Amino acid sequence: xxxLLILRRKNQDEKPYxxxxxxDPKSTDDSVASALTALNEQENLRDAEGKPAAPIRWECSCxxxxxxxxxxxxxxxxxxxxxxxLSEFKGVVKIEPLRKFPVIADLMVDRSxxxxxxxxxxxxxxxxxxxxxxxxxxxxxxxxxLQCGCCLExxxxxxIDGKFTGTASAVPMARLLAQLPDSQKKAMTDKYRLHVYEGxxxxxxxxxxxxxxxxxxxxxxxxxxxxxxxxxx
Amino acid sequence: MEQIKIIGAGLAGLSxxxxxxxxxxxxxxxxxxxxxxxxxxxxxxxINGAMDTMGENDSPAEHAADTxxxxxxxxxxxxxENLTDHAPELLEWLLRLGTPxxxxxxxxxxxxxGGQKKKRTAYAQSSTGKVLMTALIDECRKYExxxxxxxxxxxxxxxxxxxxxxxxxxxxxxxxxxxxxFLPGPVIFVSGGLNGFFPGMTTGTTANxxxxxxxxxxxxxxxxxxEFIQYHPTTVQIPEKRMLxxxxxxxxxxxxFVERNxxxxxxxxEKYPKLGxxxxxxxxxxxxxxxxxxxxxxxxxxxxxxxxxxxxxxxxLTDLREEIRYYLAIDxxxxxVPVSPGIHYFMGxxxxxxxxxxxxxxxxAAGECACQYHGANRLGGNSTLxxxxxxxxxxxxxxxxxxDFQSGETQEKAPVxxxxxPRRAKHLRDVLLSGLGILRTETxxxxxxxxxxxxxxxxxxxxxxxxxxxxxxxxxxxxxxESRGAHTRTDYPxxxxxxFRKTSIVQIQNGAFxxxxxxxxxxxxxx
Lengths: 233, 527
Fold this sequence. Notes:
The complex is a heterodimer.
Chain A: E1 2-8, E2 17-23, H1 32-41, E3 71-74, E4 77-80, E5 93-96, E6 103-105, E7 108-109, H2 112-120, H3 136-143, H4 150-154, H5 167-178, H6 185-197, H7 216-227
Helix pairs in contact in A: 3-5, 5-6, 5-7, 6-7
Chain B: E1 4-7, H1 11-22, E2 27-30, E3 47-48, H2 60-70, H3 77-96, E4 103-104, E5 107-108, E6 110-111, E7 121-122, H4 128-145, E8 149-152, E9 155-163, E10 166-174, E11 180-184, E12 187-189, H5 211-218, E13 223-224, E14 229-238, E15 241-244, H6 248-251, E16 255-260, E17 263-265, H7 267-271, H8 281-292, E18 297-304, H9 310-316, H10 318-328, E19 337-346, E20 349-351, E21 363-365, E22 370-371, H11 382-401, H12 422-435, E23 439-440, H13 442-453, H14 461-479, E24 488-489, H15 497-500, E25 503-509, E26 512-518, H16 523-526
């Protein structure tokens, strides 16, 4: 039997509280996502004390670590619920929503700031991408970003209303920088320096936390070379 | 003039939105979750287009012929030709958007895929859907910034508003605060396949409930070919769902075998010497079913990838290897992978013509929720293509017909939104699965229909809509008294072109359930 301690909150206006649940894993592969799914499937959900509980609100889509929906803080570490096997944990599993974003309810947060940042930074191609072979590796790696927000959660420099937009924007920007048309060079490299390079304290906490296991080093190295050291490939 | 509303923001929805915005037409893009969470990001193997980059003298006509053959001649040939003719320019467009499809020396590399005679599947490892989505999300953002595309990202479709067979708009619900409101205008429906009817048993997203399709069906939208459900040959069970092992694994040399008399029997290669493991998915899934149920075998089918070169793993399938290692604790380069068929794609769905119009004026549909291009069995690499091309075509049609849209205030009260009940969904799933397996019989389908009728009564509108669409699926499978593509009837084992080379259509008309067969490509005229 696994004991789950979940930070509950009905909505933004209500106070958060901890609620304990018991879950009997069906297999050693069961993840936090399996537990949340199974709990919500119970007709009359009850907590560990036997008290009636409302269904636990959380986001979920692919259950295969491919969509980033189920990012949450599990035993103090931001990660995907579908990629956190219960067999990894000893004792109580503590589950909270990501803390850098406003909570909607329970484990569901409003991550719209990430998408708004990408818009503010004007991250798109104004004209045709330069499809050079050697840009493909970085471009592919950057394309895999889930926009889950785990990197922002651990970043000591990212704040929801700050100028530094963090790795969640640096990665999509790397895809563009790698294949950037000449007309966008100045604007995009200026933005990279201002919103990424200058704000990054180089803690590189994002490096070990990415659930997609992106090669953050390669991505940042490439973008720094282009935008800071002006080594256009 | 009312703005066009798009329901769904996967490949088809993004494509529709971008193509409208490019024309300067403002749209509202509604999705339950941001595009990054859409099922399209899970598409793996590739996207087809006869670019002829591999020196094999490929052509759109051959792509069309392969698509028609794999679909057992049940697709609309004109729609298919349209798709395959435009596939190369669509791929060119995706490359201009910076999609990192695999290339070497400035040349796009295309891979072999099931049911196709030429290498025409462009890819990025086995994360093709993800890189396509990233490119389209970036392009969409350009128009979001200029307000041509207005995104409503945490909004769920509740109900379509239809009067006199005309679409008035949609009711949607803000999932953050629960507010339900009406959006008037023509609607492009791109909500994905019917996964939500088979919770835990498909390779798709768990966010899909199927409720949106059920609402449309209950309101008189015609559905087609619902009996054709694709069981992908190579899937594995992981917690709460099936996981796909991409067809790319076989495209790059993977072999299926079952143990017989103490040694591996590569049954596909023996039975189909020409295409072997790369026969269309319906054929492979069916053959797997037979060998799994053959007493002379070890029953478990394995995918043997041990012969793949180091370079193939590194350049083409790194992500797949990692995935198998994580979920199955097997290194596929060293050990065969136990696999079995699982529900992967719905060829049937909302009936559309080649312009992606439905039987309701002002309502269009594309992507997996629509029945188009794939006939009785879809080719790998045609879903991503069909979604992007279908979204574009639906957008062009909606734009051309925008002026005809008759706006009118909906007189209905806001519909009541009912939270999905997972246990009920699983119950309905079990009823459906009892009739709609890889092999089907009249007895099994009738029993499933009877079980459906005997489910305890509910007052819940969503559940009763779902039961109507479930009945439509079973009825469609019952009425098609032949075997074709993904629909295998053991009591009617042969293909019967004379009676059944037709589109199977089901709809609610004047409160009654109506099923009929119509000539391919002329369905709307018979409506």
